[in-house]
Specification:
Blueprint (H helix, E strand, L loop, with lengths): L13 H27 L22 H28 L9 H18 L6
Keywords: Membrane, Transmembrane, Transmembrane helix
């Protein structure tokens, strides 16, 4: 049975709007970490014309960029988990919803960090 209650919410408050902006920042950091990963990782010989003795392509990580890559991932993970926690702590009604993009980003970043620390990246 549906009750006639007056809706007193006026929309998202300032903190929720701030975390929308922070969510965009987290996604931007994630995309930036992918770009840094591309330049930091060893190059792959894609054709038969490249020699396998290391001439013509780099076969090692660039350490400075590797550290930036991990730093960006940890920053993205922290921002994402903080956003999930704030969303969870401020949701009080059944009609409040979970922001799926933050959960998806958290799963992706945690998986990449696990791959990194379990040394599943080659190089």
């Amino acid at each position: 049975m549906r009750q006639n209650r007056k809706e007193r919410r006026k929309g998202p408050d300032g903190l929720q709007k701030l975390f929308v902006i922070i969510s965009l920042l987290a996604w931007t950091m994630f995309i930036g970490s992918l770009v840094v990963y591309h330049y930091a990782r060893p190059e792959i010989a894609y054709s038969a014309f490249q020699t396998t003795d290391g001439q013509g392509y780099r076969d090692h990580w660039i350490e400075d960029l590797r550290q930036v890559f991990v730093f960006l991932l940890w920053g993205c993970c922290g921002i994402t988990l903080a956003g999930i926690f704030v969303n969870w702590s401020r949701s009080r009604r059944k009609t409040d919803y979970f922001k799926m993009n933050m959960g998806l980003l958290a799963v992706i970043v945690i998986a990449i960090l696990l791959f990194y620390y379990l040394k599943l990246f080659r190089g």
